[in-house]
Amino acid sequence: MSSGNKTVAEMKPGEVGIVTGFFDEHLSVKLMEMGCLPGSPVRFNFSAPLGDPVCISLAGYELSLRLEEAATISILN
Amino acid sequence: MSSPSRLKIALVGNPNSGKSSLFNFLTGLNQKTGNFPGITVERHTGLSKMPDGSLAEIIDLPGIYSIYPRTLDERIVSEILLDHHSKSTPDVVVVIADATNLKRSFLLLTQIIDIGLPTVLALNMMDLVAKSGLSYDLHALERKLGVTVIPINARNGTGIDELKKVLQQPLRTPSKNIFNIYEDAKKPVHELRERVGVDNDYEAYQFLEQPQSLNFLSTEKQKVVEEIRERYQFFPGKFQGAETIQRYTFIQDLLNEVTMKAADFSWKSYSRKLDTILTHKLWGYAIFFLILFLIFQSIFAWASYPMDFIDTGFARISQFVGNTLPDGPITRLLAEGLIPGIGGIVIFVPQIAILFAFISILEESGYMARVVFLMDKIMRKFGLNGKSVVPLMSGVACAIPAIMATRTIDNWKERIITILVTPLMSCSARLPVFTILIALIVPDQAWGIFNLQGIALMGLYMLGFVAALVSAWVMKWLIRVKERSYMIMEMPTYRWPKWSNVGYTIVDKTKAFVFEAGKVIIAISIVLWVLASYGPGDVISKAQESVLAESTNMRLTKEALDDRVAAYKLEHSYAGIIGKAIEPVIEPLGYDWKIGIALITSFAAREVFVGTMATIYSIGSATDEDVATIKERMKAEVNPETGGPRFTPASGFSLLVFYTFAMQCMSTLAVVYRETKGWKWPIIQLTYMTLLAYGSALLVFQALS
To answer: How far apart are CA B290 and CA B10, in angstroms?
Structure first.
């Protein structure tokens, strides 16, 4: 959970990365249940017209989440 | 419905896994919707014919991703699965999994296996698995999981017979234990098993992890759980994250072993392409508003034919009953109270059915998730949630199913605000009131290509919508909670709606409206009938004589005389007395006691306004289709103070605005009471809407006159 990492909120459409950790314990439990696990690949698909929420691909399906939630997932790419 | 020998089968699965298709396939039209005892979550049950001819009871549980609940709807699943010793404990749990995405589906599956109820895995969407080139070793899967696996296709029914056969065989509890409880948790788990009598470790472990789902336990047992939790400092959700990781590790190993060929998801690419258009910053909104327009157009254009038919039908039945049965209070209660009351409910069925047909198509196709995606940021500014769009849209037909649809909003504050503002959306009951008042005060003129009356009507709908948003925004600041709002939502792959599912949804929602609203509307219409038919002393019974005395030299026809008697009766009834009593309060809005009576009677259902107007203006014998007659009579009504017409643009618009904002619907209040489990929110809602209606009507009348 090192700081200074890139988060899902900073990704651009089409970009891929590997989930490395979470900044919010409460949300991390929900995200992991949805298949967003440390070590799993994530792809940023597109954001909503107003920039928020965003749509990502993970664990073989598409998930939408708000920007502030995406900012709690740190990635490496 | 539940006989002891009948096999009880619970369906559990992720949202979008095809659970409702399977349920509809198993039960057909043999299903009913009720509530789980004591709580407001809808309970879908149905009967299914098994291969040996016996009937099995199928319970369709709300879609969940994990046994740890996030919403009210989800908690019921935990409660049912954790309570192993009640009448409603399922004999077998069918976990339905989207076979194209086993990883996520298996989190729930492994939790349910560990709970220790007999479990069968139904692998759905096997057609799509074939399409994506995937293949699984199902025997290895059965061996590793310790449960029977049946591949099915819930869209066309493939595999359902095999599933039924398996369900009929003697069922074993799963032999495997997938999750290893952590050392730290073992002691409290064992102590709990001994003292409360729990069947297995994981079940006891769940008692410690989610104490909020233990309403089925006796108070003493709940106290024991509480005591053990405190002593071991076992706070709710303590190991949830670690458990999820352990399970996914198992699942990944399992999938590596049983997957014979990896997936190629290029067949899904059409879905991505569709998304580039449907969530486009320009086209996305344009298409959404086009769809909205289409929906409203069809509600008003298509529904008017069956509605006219129902209207005349019930008027005839009333007339027939009134003429055939011997005259007396019971006959009059039937003909004037009960039958029109039922008619007032049935008349809304076409609009509600059409609206829910559309909503169900949008949900089935996967488009609704995109609407939530498009609207979330905008709605959030007003203290709402992207998911509030569905209730607000449904509110245009009827607030009752709309408020029930708020259960999918997991944030409590956003859900309460949605419930509070939904009745401001102009529902179908307001339409008859709007129609007659607009016809009265807005000239039937063209204005360019638009019709002035049409613009007025549209304006009222917009007014309701804007008021809903503004009220939501105000409440966002007034209601303070610590609970965080989040929206983590699956975006399902687009697919064609399954039409039978659409049909079942229509039946289900319409039934909910007819029975929920029906009870209250009928009760209120009886009370109102009594208020409007009886008065103090013998005024009512002497009505005939009094009117005759008043109008001896007026040479009235029989009908005109009857109408005058009816008007006289209403004036001197309890309703008339209340109407006169509130006159000082409503006078600043431009209304007299006659309109006051209509305001009171329309508390059961708004459209009663028109009928009351007809009676009070002594044109009760005019048939209901004779809107023109009512209109002419209302136009001729004179305001004794000014000498001018009663319905001036000022009082007319004031009344329109009042009906747009006022909470004149007992059934909605009853549903809000049920959904929020108390009188606090319905009272707040009634108060704020009444104040809003009164204040705005006052403003309109004073500004225009």
So the answer is: 40
